[in-house]
Amino acid sequence: MKEIAIIGGGASGLAAAVAAKRSDNSVTVYERGKRVGRKILATGNGRCNMTNIYADIENYHGGDTSFMSYAINNFWVSETLDFFSELGILTKTEEDGKVYPYSDSASAVLDVLRRAADSSGVCTVCAFDVKTVEADRSGGFAVIGYDGRKRAADRVIIACGGKAAPDLGSNGSGYAILKSLGHKITELSPSLVQIKTAPDIVRKLKGIKINSSVRLGENKAEGELLFTDYGLSGPPIFTLSSRLGSEKQLLVDIMPEYSFRDINDMLHERVKLLKDVPLEDFFTGMLNKRVGQALLKFIGAVPLSRPAYTLSGQEIRDLASAIKGWSFSIQGTMSWNNAQVTKGGAVTGQFDPATMESRLVKGLYACGELLDIDGDCGGYNLQWAWSSGYIAGKSAAES
């Protein structure tokens, strides 16, 4: 019987624990917090967006996403849903492919994972903050806590998450552990996070939501956009936040169902119908009133007390252009506290994709957010956590 130590009791760590215990091994989860799975409870606004039935490699980013191919072909969406069904979770799928527990309760997902782990004999040690993992000459490991506690293990799975949402338990400690064992870590940055923009426009629109298509360079994402006092938020913004790079501008199409020509014609007709209406009310009935006023100011059609018939042909074209591509200058992203996942991580080329085992240190595994793989918004990151965690746990048990 081997002793398998799992560092971190989040999504990937619990999946690894359940998988590892399906063989005759001793499995211990070391969790720095007071309880496991806190981040699971926060996913999907408390509903837990478990996966997405459309999840595929193009939904992921990293230095080499082909690393995921084994997981996609061997333990992906259908296998994950079967896994949770066996644990007692009934799921439902929404039109956009997002999968939630039928109860709409993230606690249900955590509860069945904890029950499966406990009933199979997994030992969970909370309030154990792992400082380092040392490999010994005999092929074993020592798991050492900041308080001086030391535990022996034959296999170690590093599953302690990235740097995102530190209030929920992730502090990036896993990167230091992997680095001390010879692994390379890429540059890390917040992902699935709000984007900060020049505040002059967005502050006046704080709290307004609009369906939109957002473009960042060659990348595009669609969904509900939210204006905040610091910039932009919502699913399309979260998705594009992982692809910022050197891009300095976001283009927002607030009427994606219509072409530029359609909107231009619509505005000309609107001027005819509402010729004496002041510009401050020109968009009432077509767009959110404050959004319409902001667009008029954006193109310089002031004062807003002007009647609609004073709009020139050029101003109408500029309005149509702004509706189809409202530009916002990017000033960075919000902090790690606001991020859902980490962009970057341990270089995947140093791990075996079929087992998640280190190519540098035999018996050492890593999974989930620690690796240089991050997904779009919509259940994709939890899918990677389940898949990579399960594979790591199963492989460590069978090695």
Walkthrough of the structure:
With 399 residues, the chain is an alpha+beta fold. The protein has helices at 11-20, 38-42, 69-74, 77-87, 106-120, 173-180, 199-202, 235-241, 260-273, 289-298, 313-324, 380-398, and strands at 3-7, 26-31, 51-52, 60-61, 91-93, 98-101, 123-126, 130-135, 141-145, 150-153, 155-158, 189-191, 195-197, 209-216, 219-227, 231-233, 249-253, 326-333, 341-343, 364-366, 374-375. Strands 13-16-15-14-17-18 form a 6-stranded antiparallel beta barrel. Strand 5 and strand 6 (98-101) form a beta hairpin. The radius of gyration is 25 Å and the shape is elongated. It starts with a strand and ends with a helix. The mean pLDDT is 96.
What keyword list fits this structure?
399 residues, alpha+beta, six-stranded antiparallel beta barrel, five-stranded parallel beta sheet, 30% helix, 23% strand
Indicate the topology.
Elements: E1 3-7, H1 11-20, E2 26-31, H2 38-42, E3 51-52, E4 60-61, H3 69-74, H4 77-87, E5 91-93, E6 98-101, H5 106-120, E7 123-126, E8 130-135, E9 141-145, E10 150-153, E11 155-158, H6 173-180, E12 189-191, E13 195-197, H7 199-202, E14 209-216, E15 219-227, E16 231-233, H8 235-241, E17 249-253, H9 260-273, H10 289-298, H11 313-324, E18 326-333, E19 341-343, E20 364-366, E21 374-375, H12 380-398
Parallel strand pairs: 1-2, 1-11, 2-7, 11-20
Antiparallel strand pairs: 3-6, 4-21, 5-6, 8-9, 9-10, 12-19, 13-16, 13-18, 14-15, 14-17, 15-16, 17-18
Helix pairs in contact: 1-5, 1-12, 9-11
